[in-house]
Amino acid sequence: MAKVQLCNITVMDNPSPFLNPFQFEITFECIEELREDLEWKMIYVGSAESEDYDQTLDSVFVGPIPEGKHMFVFQADPPNVSRIPENDALGVTVVLLTCSYRSQEFIRVGYFINNEYTDPELKENLPSPPQFDKVTRNILASEPRVTRFKINWEETNPTENNTNSDQNGASAPSTSEAGPSAPVEVPAFNENSNSWATMECS
User: Fold this and answer.
1) Which terminus of the chain has fewer Cβ atoms in its 10 Å neighbourhood, N or C?
2) pLDDT tens profile 70-83
3) 3-state class (DSSP) for residue 121
4) At a CB cut-off of 8 Å and minimum separation 6, what does 48 contact?
5) Are the CB atoms for 58 and 191 separated by under 8 Å?
6) Of residues 155 and 110, which shows the higher confidence score?
7) Beta-carbon neighbour count of residue 129 at 10 Å?
8) What are the tens digits of pLDDT across the range 168-177?
9) What processes in GO biological process is this protein linked to (predicted)?
10) CB neighbour class for 79 (10 Å; exposed up to 12, middle 13-18, buried from 19)
């Protein structure tokens, strides 16, 4: 059984200008204390044609984590626009949130994004190169694609896992209101990360 359950993800500041940071409020629950870090990643899919255009926007390590429910805001700068093919600048793409334990990815959440101009004139006469400062990013928050992977939670050097369950179209379950909570300092956040370095637990 997985020791970490994803409870809820809230997409913040959506829709927003393309050059604004991504912000996700993530709530998860540990059924028992985790002595090693969880690694969260945010990945922007620059092109459906090749993974070479994928950009890791941020990666944070959180831990050790006590038993209970926890919440943090995962924030990352927008992608480097110079690495996005011009033909893929507008239209539909994907942002991925992943979480790993002991270098084993156990959950992946994907959100579709629609990037478009709001100015009718720019819609009719697409500029080249794209003017990203005039593009609006709209994340389809209501329809995340959630994939869970079976991993080894116990071994120090676990073997590679090859089982997964795909739950396309399933929303991350909503979280009931938690009682009073106190902030827990998590010193293992990356120093260069934009994510909040505190979590709340109950």
Assistant:
1) N
2) 999 999 999 999 99
3) helix
4) 88, 93
5) no
6) 110
7) 9
8) 443 333 333 3
9) DNA replication-dependent chromatin assembly
10) buried
For residue 164, list its beta bridge partners: 149
Nearest to 102 by CA among 160, 58, 158: 158
Q: What is the chain's percent helix, strand, coil content, to nearest 5? A: 10, 45, 45
Q: Where are the beta strands (DSSP E) in the chain?
A: 4-12, 16-17, 22-30, 38-45, 55-62, 68-76, 91-101, 104-117, 135-139, 145-149, 164-167, 182-185, 198-201
* Position 19, amino acid: L
Residue with more model confidence, 64 or 102: 102
Query: 55 with 31: CB under 8 angstroms?
Result: no
Nearest to 177 by CA among 69, 79, 59, 51: 69
Tokens of 138: 């709209």
Structure confidence by residue, pLDDT tens digits, 16-31: 999 999 999 999 999 9
Q: What is the mean pLDDT of the chain?
A: 83
pLDDT (tens digit per residue) in 138-163: 999 999 999 999 999 986 654 444 44
Within 10 angstroms of residue 4's Cβ, the number of other Cβ atoms is 19
Tokens of 120: 């009718």
